[in-house]
Each structure stands twice: as structure tokens, then as C-alpha cells.
Amino acid sequence: MPWTETDVMDQRTEFVLRVLRNAERFGDVCKEYGISRKTGYKWKERFLAEGLSGLGDASRRPKTSPQELGEGLVCQILKLKLAHLGWGARKLRAVLERTVAKGELPSESSFKRILEKAGLVEHRRRARAAQGARLQSRVRSARPNHVWTIDFKGWWYTRDRNRFEPLTMRDDYSRYVLCAQALEDACTETVRQQMIRVFERYGLPEVIRSDNGAPFAACGSPLGLSRLSAWWLALGIDLDRIAPGRPDQNGSHERMHRDMALEVEGKAERDPATQQATLDVWRKTFNEERPHEALKMRVPQDVYRSSSRKFDSAAIELAYPSGYLVRKVGGRGTVKVENIKVSVSMALSGWDVGLEPLSTSRYAVWFCRLCLGEVDLATEKFHAVSSLADGPDDTASPRRVRKPK
Predict the structure, then answer these.
(1) CB-side exposure of 171: number of CA atoms within 13 Å?
(2) How big is the chain by its Cα radius of gyration, in Å?
(3) pTM above 0.70?
(4) CA distance linking residue 174 with residue 90, whole number of Å
(5) What residues have CB less than 8 Å from 353, skipping those under 6 apart?
(6) CB-based contacts of 210, cutoff 8 Å, min separation 6
(7) How is residue 382 annotated by DSSP?
(8) What does the DSSP assignment read for 200-214?
């Protein structure tokens, strides 16, 4: 019988010492311990070569493996991961595939194993599915510049204690980041000037998706219109807002913000200028190097194309169907009809609205293609609607023309 399970090392030591004294026949000693002569010679030779340490069980792991990764490749994987903490094994593999020979590139599971051993895998608990019906987005991007998304990334401090809060804009279809720029403030005019620079470079989208916060929306205005979103409508851009408190409805934009938090905010720079330069490098990497699963591991730059709808800085004049009364909204958000002033919305100050006659004292108030509510001259009140509505038909709906320069 072979060595017993208890005190194996003691038995092997005792066996070796007995055979080395040469006082007994080697075969008899082997027979007493229940091992073959071949095994007996193996332990004798190990003891002579390595001493007592040679009597332990050797590892059964192969000395070499065709799947074993070289130290240089492992270091390359970890270096890329540390530079982009938000990237997973699949993205890292897609990036290294560009420079590593196909036969030398490890599998995705090998990437995961390396990251796991290095402690670079964040295990997140799965959120429970929301109960009840989920609000569904009315607009799903089908091509570049169909839907743009916009938001402010939550602010952070640079190391010199300056506040840094980037405005981010992104093409939803291609994931291309159009803007990642810190602004002096979040005021309407500041954001508008930055958007003009983006429009001049990339053209106009068909739809802009935003949340319900300022300056993108205003809670006290009909349909949540703000000065900024009213300008979008006048440019011919439709609005698509997520439901209040539902950032998951703009999930891919939030995912981009999470990458920014890990790779830029998590390594705050000394001052805002240096921080913006770092953010510019991050945006270039995101657009030109980071593969996206939704794009079949292509990069956004390979998919995005500038819009054919060019931005025109000329003043805009809105035209409405014949039969509508056209009134300019005053500085205090009022319109004047038959010498009666009715408050509509400060967000529309300076813009023309179309008043569609409904009766002798009631008018529907239109701004671009949106019906904002009704003006009742009998009560001198404006009653806002709670949902969007399109124009009466394609020929009668309001349209936009340009004022001559």
C-alpha cells in the first residue's frame, strides 16, 4: 500500500534514513512501506539532491503552457486598464487587437482573469427592475445627428480649489462627444454661446434630448420651455425630454459621464486650464480610440458625420399660417390682443407667437409647432396645455423664415 495519509513527510524521512544506512536490503524496506523500488529510488535521489525539502509533493502544474501570457503583454493590459479605468475586458481587447498579432492576443476571459487578479474589476450589484410601466422615449436615434443629448457633468474642484463643471453634448447614434467644455457658469447666454460654436462646427441636429433642469427647461413655463429650448425650436430643432428623476432614460450619456468621473474627475488637475487640457485629451481618446459595443466595437469617429443642416447666424423670423394673429411676446412675457395684455411666458420674450382664433374671445397660442395653451380674453387669462401637439397639418403649421441681414 502507498504512504498513509498521516505524517507523510515523517514516513518518507524515516524511509530515506533507513535505506541510506545500508543496514537492510533496499527491496525489503520498500516492501515494508508499501511502495515500489522505483518510487523508493525517486525519494532517495530527491533527498540527496534537495534535502528534506525534496520529500514534499511537487506541484503538478505544467512548467510551460501554450496559453500562458508573457509578462510584457500582461503589463501592457494592466497599463491600458489603469489609463482607462472605465473600460472593460472587451474594450481593452479590441484596442490591443490593433497592435498585437492575432495569434498572440489572449481571449476575453484571459483579460478578465488578469484584471480580476490585479483587483481592477469593480463588482456592482444588479439593480432591481422598476415596478410598473416604464416611460418610453418618443425618439430613438436612427442616424448621425438625428438625436443629440446634452447635460452638465456634476462639478468638481481642481487642486487649487476652483470649481470645474463641463457642459457635455453627444451624438446619440454614433456616441461621438461633440462638446466637453467647462463654462464660467450655467446661465442661458453662456450655454447658448458654447452651443453656437458647436453648431458652427458640426451643424444642427434634428432633436435635442435633455433633462428638466435649467437652463434646458423651466418648471414654471408652458411645456417647460426655457429661453434656451425656445431658441432650439426656432432653429428647427425638436425637443425630447426625459421624465423627471429618470436619468436612466438618457443612460448612454450618463455612462459617458461615469467614464469621465473615473478618468478625469478622479485625477483632478492643478488648475482649470490644465484640467480642460486633460479633458480635451480624454474626449479625443473617447472619440477616436475607445471601441463601443453598440457600434460593433468601432469607434465613434468611424460612424459620425457632420450634419447637412448648417447653422445660420442670421436673425430668425417665425411665420404662421394665414388667419393667425401674429404677436411679439413682450419683455415681461406678455402678448397684447385687442388692447388686453395676457401673460404667457418670459421664456418667449422677443419671439413671435401665432394666435389661432377659436372663438370671439379665445385663441390657441402657438410657438413654432407647439401649441402652448389658450388665451381667454374674457378672463384675461392664459391656460397652458400639459402635452405637446403638432400643427393643424403640414400646410397650416407654423414655419420659420430668416430675416434679411
Answers:
(1) 29
(2) 35
(3) no
(4) 19
(5) 326, 327, 328, 329, 335, 344, 365, 366, 367, 372
(6) 149, 150, 151, 216, 217, 229, 239, 240, 241, 242
(7) E
(8) HHH---SEEEE-S-T
Give me the torsion for CA of 355, 360, 362, 367, rounded to 10°. -10
Contacts 24+ apart (CB under 8 A), 112-119: 114/69, 114/74, 114/77, 114/78, 115/77, 115/78, 115/81, 115/89, 118/78, 118/81
Residue 96 near residue 76 (C-beta atoms within 8 A): yes
d(CA 89, CA 108): 6
- Which residues, other chains included, contact 65 with Cβ-Cβ below 8 Å and sequence gap of 6+? none
**245, burial (CB in 10 Å: exposed 0-12, middle 13-18, buried 19+):** exposed
Closest CA to 87 of 277, 289, 253, 303: 289
Spatial CB neighbours of 39, under 8 Å, sequence gap ≥ 6: 30
SS3 content of the chain, % helix, strand, coil (to 5): 35, 20, 45
**Among candidates 91, 236, 233, which has minimal Cα distance to 175?**
91
Q: What Å distances lie between residue 80 and 96, 109, 316, CA to CA?
A: 9, 17, 49
Alpha-carbon distance of 78 to 69, in angstroms, equals 13
Strand partners, 335: 342
Q: Rounded CA gap, 26 and 267, in Å?
A: 70
The pLDDT, as a whole number, for residue 243 is 85
CA distance 356 to 396: 11
Cβ contact 87:105 at 8 Å: no
CB 400, CB 367: distance < 8 Å: no
Taking the chain (405 residues) in consecutive chunks of 10 residues, what is each chunk's mean pLDDT? 62 84 84 88 84 72 58 80 80 81 78 79 54 48 95 94 96 96 95 97 96 90 93 94 84 92 91 96 94 90 96 89 94 92 94 94 93 92 67 42 42
Q: Taking a C-beta distance cutoff of 8 angstroms, is the pair 252, 172 a contact? A: yes
What is the three-class DSSP state of 277? helix
Enclosing H/E stretch for 327: strand 325-328
Measure the CA dihedral 103/109/114/115, to 10°.
130
